[in-house]
Write a structure and sequence with these properties.
There is one protein chain. With 88 residues, the chain is an alpha/beta fold. It has one domain. Helices cover 56% and strands 12% of the residues. The longest helix is centred in the first third of the chain and has 18 residues. It is globular, with a radius of gyration of 14 Å.
Amino acid sequence: MNIYLDNCCFNRPFDDPSQIRIRLEAEAKLYLQRLVTEGRLDLVWSYVLAYENRANPFEERRRVIETWEKRAVADQEETPQVVALAGC
């Protein structure tokens, strides 16, 4: 099964876990991350994710997130259908 995680998902484990919602979201993301590393889920990357990550002001986060691009089994390019779905 393919899974796409947006930039917010990739950044969530770095956020302050003192709020229960943030902690649960981070745990969920880490669980999905584990399934990707075990080969039980296939990660999909995109040009938008790469663009947003390059703009990440936190160098450590940016470097860690970049490593996930190498694990992706597919890279979603911009197409007219993607642009239409995004409402651009």
